[in-house]
Amino acid sequence: MKTMKPMFRALPMSMAMIALCCTTLLVAPARAHGQDTPSATPAQGPMQGRGRGMMMDPKAQVDMMSKQLALTDDQKPKVQAILEDRQKQMQALRADSSLAPADRRPKMMAIMQSSDDKIKALLTDEQKTKFDTMMSQMRGRRGGPGGPPPPTPPQ
Q1: Each residue's pLDDT tens digit, 91-116
Q2: What distance in Å separates the CA atoms of residue 38 and residue 120, rounded to the nearest whole number?
Q3: 7, 78, 106, 145 - which has most CB atoms within 10 Å?
Q4: Sequence-distant (≥ 6) Cβ neighbours of residue 57 within 8 angstroms
């Protein structure tokens, strides 16, 4: 019986260690999930990007635009090529560590505007109207140019 006594004394300590390990395993993933990931890779799936600025991949964008704008079979590959080019330009811009964030934003906006202009050149007048509406709605949700003004702080 004397050999059993030390084991019982050690039992509360090992149970405490097990509880601590289990708690750590449960809390660590929840904390890590709450943090923004600093970068994205193309293997992530249809949504790519960083933080709240996530963007759909070109294929998913074409699918969405096809439904909303009724793109023809002739327009789809052309729009996808424009979106793929935009994605490459944006990735190169994000990878350019020599640019300050303040300098990067205007260049990103210029890339977006250029690709939007190229897409609009492919659209019919009716599709252009729908495209403009779609873009203004997106800007409104993001709070970008043309979106709702920022809320005023409570006084």
Answers
A1: 999 999 898 888 999 999 999 999 99
A2: 32
A3: 78
A4: 42, 45, 46, 47, 48, 87
pLDDT digits (tens, 9 = 90+) for 145-154: 444 445 555 5
Q: Is residue 146 part of a domain?
A: no
In a domain, 131, yes or no: yes
128 inside domain = yes
Length of the chain: 155
* Position 152 in a domain: no
pTM of the predicted structure, to 2 decimals? 0.58
If one counts the domains in the chain, the total is: 1
